[in-house]
Amino acid sequence: MTAYGLLVSPSHNRVYAQSAADLVKAELTVFSERALGGRVGDVREAEIGGVPYVTFTGDELTEQDIRLLSNLSSLYALFQIEGELLRPVVLQRLDVFGSDLLTIQKYSGKTNEYFTKLLLNVTAMATDSPMDLVTGRPRVLDPMCGRGTTLNQAMMYGLDAAGIDIDGKDFDAYAAFIKTWLKNNRVKHQAEIANVRREKAVLGRRLHVTLAASKERYKSGETMEITVVNADSAGAGKFFRPASFDLIVTDAPYGVQHGSRRGLAGGGPRTPAQGGQPGRKGKPQLSRSPVELLAAAVPEWARLLRPGGAVGISWNTFVGRREQLAEILAGSGLDVQDCEAYRGFRHRVDQAISRDVIVARRPSG
């Protein structure tokens, strides 16, 4: 048996840092069970040289194993432990762009980029082909994408990604950010915004970006695509073909910073005529629960998922119970991953938010 030590990234914010070691232990356990044949064990926290590590044991890691583990969300460095010595393991990250793609955006309510990566990773592990994360090109959808943290993480991995959000300001903010970032970093690309029409009616706006990691790849056609639609997520099937995504990953409104409006799957305001509930001065009433939103939207999302694909949702447990979300996912024909490894992600964000993750797979048959 070989022992390894994982150094957790020191760049977390204070609150997330308190949970980072527990989260990476759960993530590592999922990686082991789903992609490494259970060959990683004895996952624990340990202090080495006065510094906290996450340690684990197993057979000596193969190159393929290292390719996968290099992408653990909070991994800063990996060492093979030999007695009192640490031998560095050369990481092989998927990242094709600089980390500023994920960190440069600063705004209230932004989902932590490390957690976004974790959610994408553990959702990918639930698919029928978990190693496709490093050997293939799974296509990603965030049906409540906000200002695009999930899309940027998919882009870091070199994956095609799409998003939907009903908030026009978030759509405009992401479009402005990504076009500016691509230009400033001299990434070869094409970007356009156009209305989506059907039978002369405008259904929403669409941002479509074609880009590549290098000019040479762009010229040879080795491109990736980012698509964002400004529309209601419950109508996702109007914009994307059935069974066209391998991964659906989203951070549901917490009912605090990002409340959801009743009757609206996209999380934005609706008039009473559109199904919103009037509050003071005729405004739609804010719903603190993501359950109503997900009950309306998940059946539509499930139709967009390929057989063998998976959906991962994070949410605030103070405003929605795990059993409620599991019932919604199961009701759409999805198999909820309910093993102990997938129950290890609950953590505190602040006094009003206790965040958890639920993952489900669409059966292949």
TrEMBL record:
SUPFAM superfamilies from the UniProt entry: S-adenosyl-L-methionine-dependent methyltransferases
A Pfam cross-reference name: UPF0020
Gene Ontology terms describing biological process: methylation
A GO term, aspect molecular function: methyltransferase activity
InterPro entries hit by this protein: RlmKL-like_Mtase (IPR000241), SAM-dependent_MTases_sf (IPR029063)
Keyword Methyltransferase appears in the UniProt entry: yes
Residues of the Ribosomal RNA large subunit methyltransferase K/L-like methyltransferase domain: 139-262
Positions of the UniProt region annotated as Disordered: 259-288
Keywords: Methyltransferase, Transferase
Protein name according to UniProt: SAM-dependent methyltransferase
Organism: Actinomadura bangladeshensis
Lineage: Bacteria, Bacillati, Actinomycetota, Actinomycetes, Streptosporangiales
